[in-house]
């Protein structure tokens, strides 16, 4: 009997009591976040804790042993994790996105679905896509990858270099964006085990923010994978091999990371203003209307974020608006942290305090696809098209 078949005979896994589990994870992750940031070290212990809590297969299909949780539940978990350590949350988001979309990806053979999900459940295995390249940049801007998958009698031979490979040191599975060596090349993802001969991780990640994410270069030197590990190769320009719902999940969960960073910054600011008692004032800074108004402005921005994220997660936003949600939430989060810095001066920029780390981390939100120019241009085009249709 296959492992997946055996799992179907077991009682369905149950979602942990998130209200009981998540606060402890947030606190534990926050306790080591500063050290991982300073050392640019990967938080392996955080993922062991998530595995032990039964949260690494949160969005995986139930028939494969996962919990098949919905987007609001994934949002709740990611937000709590990011409040503690945002690089952990970023890697977790990549895991959740792949697990949630695996059933809709027609190019995935059944046995590979079973293996990837089973590895996550049994061993805490992580998966992520490796897409960005030195010359091409992000594939969201168009172009063909330089990474080549060469068809041979024994399987595919993959050669190339990927950069900004989030979680690289801890991943069990890479989905490598590449093109075949056919006369008319096919473009898509090839599934590669991280421990395959010819895979080399070069520890190049030395970034301003999310320093614990291990987003190193990964080099593929004639790496052999089976023929059926070509998951979804298609002609260039073909529609993506996954549902449009994937875009909403990606935008909501990515934005949630930076909203959570801003909330951590807000809490530190509030505690700082309460505890700071200048001698010439004889009372805490929190008693001054200037600081009360400023914290009210910050809470207003965070309220907007909560409404936007919850609405998008529940499916209440319109078609094509998830990119705008990601953009607005990210910009609000950055504004929150910048306001906190302006209010605190030197203490906010002191490395002994977490606010300067929150500032570096929150700026990374602008990097993720879809980026602001693409989102706003697309929204503008839709608005004009709508008006022209009504005319």
UniProtKB/TrEMBL annotation:
InterPro entries: Acyl-CoA_Oxase/DH_mid-dom (IPR006091), Acyl-CoA_Oxase/DH_mid-dom_sf (IPR046373), AcylCo_DH-like_C (IPR036250), AcylCo_DH/oxidase_C (IPR009075), AcylCoA_DH/ox_N (IPR013786), AcylCoA_DH/ox_N_sf (IPR037069), AcylCoA_DH/oxidase_NM_dom_sf (IPR009100), Mito_Isobutyryl-CoADH (IPR052547). Keywords: FAD, Flavoprotein, Oxidoreductase. GO terms for molecular function: flavin adenine dinucleotide binding; oxidoreductase activity, acting on the CH-CH group of donors. Belongs to the acyl-CoA dehydrogenase family. Signal peptide: none annotated. Residues 30-95 form the Acyl-CoA dehydrogenase/oxidase N-terminal domain. This is Acyl-CoA dehydrogenase. The lineage of its organism: Bacteria, Pseudomonadati, Pseudomonadota, Alphaproteobacteria, Caulobacterales. It comes from the Bacteria. Its cofactor is FAD. It comes from Caulobacter zeae. Residues 280-366 form the Acyl-CoA dehydrogenase/oxidase C-terminal domain. Residues 133-223 form the Acyl-CoA oxidase/dehydrogenase middle domain. Coiled coil: none annotated.
